[in-house]
Amino acid sequence: MYVAPRTRGNPGCLQFLPVGLFDRFKLPAVKADEAMEMLRSGATLLDVREKSEWNAGHAPGAVHVPVKNVPSQAVKRLPKGRPVIVTCRTGSRSRGATRILREKGIEAFSLSGGMNAWESAGGRVVGKGNRPGVIA
Questions:
Q1: Between the chain's N and C termini, which has fewer beta carbons within 10 Å?
Q2: Rounded to two decimals, what is the model's pTM?
Q3: CATH 3.80.10.10 fits 26-130, yes or no
Q4: Distance between CA 55 and CA 135 in Å, rounded?
């Protein structure tokens, strides 16, 4: 399938670009090291795991909104005008939440590999009461 956008220089000329069948379903994702850099630059980390998973271990400074509550609560709980990195345990739930946030106009990215990748890349994990945590 080909999409034929108009070129800037010559509005009467068409340019053909290859587009894959499933390209419209792709969501922006970042690796853990990229996420850490984005957080240092002011992005927000949104953890969409369940409360028991969050209590067992989460990234310090993350905002917690369980995935089932993202449509109704996330926009209210996230800082305005900042990119959002969405995480879960492995990256599956975060993709769905990322899609919802992007549909609401938020610049959101899914963390590839989720909290497992975060911890493997050296990201801190804290549990309830700021004690050392585990990924559950």
A1: N
A2: 0.81
A3: no
A4: 9
